[in-house]
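Lab notebook, bench 4. Still working through the backlog of constructs that have no structural model yet. Next entry is a single chain of 173 residues. Request: give me the structure tokens for it.
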Amino acid sequence: MANSNKQILETASAARPANTLAEARAAYVGRRYPLFEESFNLFDDSGGFRPTFIWAPLFFGLFWFLYRRMYLEAVLAFLAGLALMSLRVAWGEGGEGTVMLMSFCFSLFMAVAGRWLYWRAVDRRLEQAMRLFPHDPDRALAWLRWKGGVDPWAVVIALGIILISIIGAARGI
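Model written out:
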């Protein structure tokens, strides 16, 4: 099935002008696409990861992934945070510094790989749009605009869940 998807994408990209990929990405990313365009082109040219830096994942990590509708990456970042907290508990107070260093390194990794992870997430959505609307680029672009952009409500909901969890833990629930 992966090969057939690849064939569909290759056929579709061969049949459309070169600017369609940028147009589709811009439709999904939204008005802030110019901030990502240069790095997306860099990843396209290199065929994969190139280190770039974006400050938002460094400071906001999980919330930046949610805001950018990168739900899979947000779950993985959350699980990595849980793993680091488990290490802190398992190693006791003697391992506190090591876990803090590991946590900082993980945040730094997210800052360096954040744009690349976003590039991959955007292209996953583009592939999905191509599968859903293989012969109707206008509907695909409309679908990308509807599914894309940012999701501030996901951040608000996540903060609410965290706040409820903290209050529940403080009350011993």
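Notes after review: The chain is about 80% helix and 0% strand. The radius of gyration is 19 Å. Flag for follow-up if needed.
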